[in-house]
Amino acid sequence: MSGEQIEDVVFLTQTDTTIGFVSQNRERLDSIKQRPSHKYYIKALPSLEKLKEFTRVPNTHKNRVRRAKRSTFIFPNGHSYRIIRDKKHLKLISKLGWAYTTSANLSNESYDKKFAISKADEIVGSLQSERGMPSQIYKINNYSIKKIR
User: Quick one: fold of 6-147?
Assistant: First the structure.
């Protein structure tokens, strides 16, 4: 990592859903993906306790969020979160405490292994599947839930 703070490192790793970039540095991810800065990223979290540091889960959805696997929830504050359950990916997320996670490709483009490797500061683990199942995405508020993907 040659002197970089861990918060600035962009990791390329097999996530719980696909091969992705993981970092706490949103600006670097925006630059790599050539993505508009106003778009939100999913925050990957190691636990429900960590989720409570960022947002409040509406009472109606507490059980759903606690039991969910490979599911992302967009909360009333507009931010999206996914609790990581995959043991290999959880190691990295636990080490970071939390991280933005996104697919390892240019915005609106398909995965290109050479591009992904060239943009990452560090590769974590083996990169096995570029075509994993994406997470299910739900938008929740105090009263309802809507499946987005």
Answer: DHBP synthase (3.90.870)
Q: Measured in whole angstroms, how far is the alpha carbon of residue 113 from the centre of its chain?
A: 19
Are β-strands 42-45 and 99-103 bridged in parallel, bridged antiparallel, or unpaired? antiparallel
d(CA 3, CA 143) in angstroms, rounded, equals: 47
Q: What is the pLDDT of residues 60-82, one digit of tens each?
A: 999 999 999 989 999 998 999 99
Residue 43: alpha-carbon gap to chain centroid: 5
Q: In what order do the strands lie in the sheet with 42-45?
A: 122-124, 11-14, 19-23, 99-103, 42-45, 80-83, 71-74, 136-140, 145-147
> CB–CB of 7/25 below 8 Å?
yes
Nearest to 98 by CA among 51, 56, 65, 58: 51
Q: What is the pLDDT of residues 98-140, one digit of tens each?
A: 999 999 999 888 889 999 999 999 999 888 766 567 789 999 9
